[in-house]
Amino acid sequence: MHPIRLIPDSNFIFSKKQCPIFRKVRGYHLNFSSQEELDFPLAFSILTYQDAEQFERFLKSIYRSQNIYCVHVDKKSSSKFKAAIESITDCFDNVFIASKLEYVVYAGFSRLKADLNCIQDLIERSNDWKYFLNTASTEFPLRTNLELVQIIKLLNGSNLISVYELKKMIEFRYKFIYRENLNFFRVEKGKFLENNSPPHGIRLGKGSAYNIMERGFLENIFTNKKIVDFVEWLKKTFSPDELVKQQLIRTIIWKSSKYKCQGFYRHAICIYSVGDLAFLNKRKNLFANKFLISYDPISYQCMEERLNKRSLINQDQNISDKNYFLSYFKL
């Protein structure tokens, strides 16, 4: 399938005076929030690097006025894309660009650092939010904001953590020293340079780059010496975001999965197409990763319509699969 041309990034560059028109045309005022949602604001980070149209449509899908959103724009993104994101974020009091941006390198420490930058900004900007979710503009929510709130409240102040034992096959990720090459934007292993063991006797586990974490826990990561030392050690490892962060209940189809992707694989992860929608519709996860509007705009539009209908049906109702999550959280 040939890529579809998206709305040019330049179309999203406009003055702040045009913000009321932008918000009205895009229907941000239609994103209804129940009292339960208003009483339980969430914080999000959104990593993005290209395609302003997809970023804006993803933001629209998760936007609620009581939540707060930090956007990390890859430093190597185009100037037009950066200007477009600035225009969009300037239209909201609760959406902002991270104060410190990184050149994000796949499987490098910069991927983790981008989230840490946003977490710090979110903590400093607002005392209201309860939980933090990190996202990317290439995914899409399978749950409404109300469902997210009701599911997260089941955690009762704990974090969503699933740790898997490290397998021998990925010891290379931390046994050797890795550095980010910003000339080629890739992670390179130093020849014959072995890494030290993790500080403070910390045991490593395998997780995911996505998570749900409680505010108090996050405030601790910038002051606790063990955590600070561990983050410093991670700078020299491969794909450190999967060593420090834990599994969030996301639908991600790996090339090794039993289910075969109907779209195509990038970095061994499925890029969804229309053929995957029936599969996604049965999932109980919170988000699905990944979508590219330029590859299959129909599948993305179908997901938007599904979410809108789900929002209308589920207003002020309790989630129907509460017992599934209670069992998953082992509560």
From TrEMBL:
Lipid bilayer topology: Single-pass type II membrane protein
Superkingdom classification of source: Eukaryota
Entry-linked Pfam families: Branch
Keywords: Glycoprotein, Glycosyltransferase, Membrane, Signal-anchor, Transferase, Transmembrane, Transmembrane helix
Any one GO CC term of the record: membrane
Compartments, as annotated in UniProt: Membrane
Entry-linked InterPro entries: Glyco_trans_14
Signal peptide: none
GO function term, MF aspect, one: acetylglucosaminyltransferase activity
Pathway(s) served: Protein modification; protein glycosylation
Protein family according to the UniProt entry: Belongs to the glycosyltransferase 14 family.
Official protein name in the record: N-acetyllactosaminide beta-1-6-N-acetylglucosaminyl-transferase isoform X2
